[in-house]
Amino acid sequence: MNVSFRKTSLVDYPGRVAGSLFFPGCALRCPWCHNRSLVLGGESDLIPLEAVLKHLEKRRALLSGAVLSGGEPTLYGELPALIRRVKGLGLSVKLDTNGMEPVMLERLLQSPETSPDYIALDLKAAPERYVFLGSRRESPENALKTSAALVCGSGIPHEFRTLSFPNGFITEQDIEALAPLADDAPWYFRPFRPGNCLDPAWDNLEPAGSASAEALARKAVSLGKRGICPAGYKLPHA
Q1: In what order do the strands lie in the sheet with 92-97?
Q2: Which of the chain's ends, N or C, has fewer CB atoms near its CB within 10 Å?
Q3: For residue 136, what pLDDT is reported?
Q4: What global pTM score does this model have?
Q5: Which domain holds residue 129?
Q6: pLDDT per residue over 176-207, tens digit each?
């Protein structure tokens, strides 16, 4: 298995210095996705996973975590073994996921050795709108709901993530539809920034202003959720 790798990150894992692994492939085709080459193939800087593990072992005195992101890491059957190995190095593991692979997520959560120490679950749009995100799954709405229930019931620290867009793609109605999936964990709202989008037309959009993210966060708060709109956020792997 080959992955893209950021050797050191201060922003991908809350409160930790981490190495970040980006797995190719995804079951969704979100037009705004900024990891175009990872999703479609053609990423030029993929390296063997074993080389990444050797680096993590060498740097474990300086690192305190590893982030498994993508693309989508839960597509890979080797993921439980990988988490076990990374934890064996004394590193905490954060999993970034779109929730389209609840079977793998449930498998990970069956053992402390394979459970992530932190999970970030994307809530991209109202569940019924996932069918319009180019899903490769027969029932993406059910997959998302199942994954959200698994994350919320896991007892593992977690967060939710939603982007805001200048074209109004995500509305307060989406937040109302997503709110039942979220518990009292932080729900971060961040403005879209164009660049290397899966659909090149989205690169022509203006960056979303912070006001759009703040409005969605306020809506989440009004629904009893921990809506947060942090300043100065940098998209992973951008």
Answers
A1: 47-48, 2-9, 18-23, 65-70, 92-97, 118-122, 158-164, 186-191, 226-228
A2: C
A3: 74
A4: 0.94
A5: 2-228
A6: 999 999 999 999 999 999 999 999 999 999 99
Token representation of residue 143: 């997959």
Whether 237 maps to a domain, the answer reads no
Count of the separate structural domains present in the chain = 1
What is the residue whose two structure tokens read 């620290």?
157
Q: What is the CATH number of the domain that holds 208?
A: 3.20.20.70
Residue 127 lies in a domain: yes
In angstroms, what is the C-alpha Rg of the chain? 17
